[in-house]
Design brief:
With 110 residues, the protein is α+β, with helices and mostly antiparallel strands. The chain contains two helices and five strands.
């Protein structure tokens, strides 16, 4: 039941994000800008807000997964990272994370 409710939230969020984009010609800076009851912004799986950020090519939306820890949208059970990527597709997300890693100075040799 909880997974089903989470999927409903995800569909509602993606639809609301698209509507916002069509009305304002930009993605919202925060999910709080959406015309939604705040309950839709919380993942029923873990009780935490969905993670959202804009990117150069659109946006990234993901669940913090069952552990409720923000792993940056990465799902890698071997590293105990259980985020559930909602949008965009995984190959696009990998490119965005790599670009962010290097452009924000995270990926340094120090």
């Amino acid at each position: 039941y909880t997974i089903h409710r989470s999927l409903q939230h995800q569909v509602r969020l993606c639809g609301s994000l698209k509507q916002y984009r069509l009305r304002h010609d930009r993605w919202p800076h925060s999910l709080l800008e959406l015309d939604l009851d705040p309950a839709w912004l919380v993942d029923p799986v873990n009780g935490e807000p969905y993670a959202y950020r804009t990117t150069n090519t659109g946006f990234v939306l993901y669940s913090l997964g069952p552990n409720g820890i923000d792993d940056g949208g990465i799902n890698d059970p071997q590293k105990n990272k259980d985020d559930v990527l909602i949008w965009p597709q995984p190959q696009i997300m990998e490119q965005e994370l790599t670009e962010t890693f290097w452009t924000e100075g995270i990926g340094t040799n120090e």
